[in-house]
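B., you asked whether I could sanity-check this one before it goes into the benchmark set. Here's the sequence:
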Amino acid sequence: MASMRDIKRRKSSIQGTQQITKAMKLVSTVKLQRARASAERSKGYFTCMYDTVNNILQRVGHIDHPYLTPGESQRKAVVVITSNRGLAGGYNSNVTKLVTRHPQWKKEELDIYCLGNKGRETFARYGYGIKECDNDIVESPVYADAAALSAKLLASYAAGEIGEIYLAYTGFKNTVSHVPTLLRLLPVDISEEEGTARNEPSGEVSAIMNFETEDTEALDLLIPKYVTSLIYGALRESVASENGARMQAMDNATSNAEEMISDLTLKYNRARQGSITQELTEIIAGAEALG
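And here's what the prediction gave me:
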C-alpha cells in the first residue's frame, strides 16, 4: 500500500495537471467561439459557389473539359488539414486515417500536402511522400493562402503531374459533432442526386445564375475559384473543429482528474486513519506494559 507521503505527492501532481486542463479548456472555448463565427459568416459564399458550379455542369451536361475528366497520371494529390498541436482527442488521427486506411490507394501514388504539423509527423512515420508542408496556414487561415495552394495544385494538374486532387479535413457541424471528410476537388464529379435535387417540376434544372459566355470559358473562370473556396472553407471548419475537439478533450481530462483526486483523498484519509489507530494501539499497549 502506498504511503501517505506518496499519496499526497500524487494528489498534488494531479491537481496541478487539472489546473492546466481547466485553463486549456477556457482558451479553447474562446477560440472556438471566434472560429465558429468566422466559419458561419463565410459558409454562405462557399455554399453558393458550390451550387453554382453544380448548376452549370447540370445545364451543360457532359462536355470535354480538363477539369471534368481524370488526368492521364495515376498520381493523386491529397491536401490534409490537421493541427499543429495535440491534446485534441482523435481530431488528427481521424483525418489521417481517411488517407492511410483508404482501401484503393497506394502510398507510392500519393502526393501529400500537409497543412498542420501533426499530419506531417504521421505521414512521415508511415513513409508517405510529403510534397509540401505549411504549418502556419492553419493558425489563422486567409483566402490568399488558399488561393496560392490552389494555384499550385491546378498547375500540377494542368501539367499532367497529377490526375486527381482530394481534400481531407474535419467538417464542423456543431460544438460536439465534427465529421472527418474526404472530398474530391478535381476532376469535378457531380452526382445525379445533386442534379435531381434542383430539378423543377417540369424536369428542367433551375438556374441559380445565367451566363452568356462559352461553357469552357465559364468553367475556366469558376473552377479555380471553386477549388480555392472549398480549401478555404475546409480550413475555416477545421479550425473550429480543432478547438471544439480540444475543448471536449480538456473537459474530459478535467473530469477524470477530479475523480482521481477524490479517490486519492479517500485513500489518504484511510491511510491517515490507519496510522492514527496504530499509534493509539501502541500507546495503549505501552501503558498497559508499564502498569
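One thing to flag: The helical segments are 4-60, 91-100, 117-125, 143-158, 192-197, 215-290. Otherwise nothing jumped out at me.
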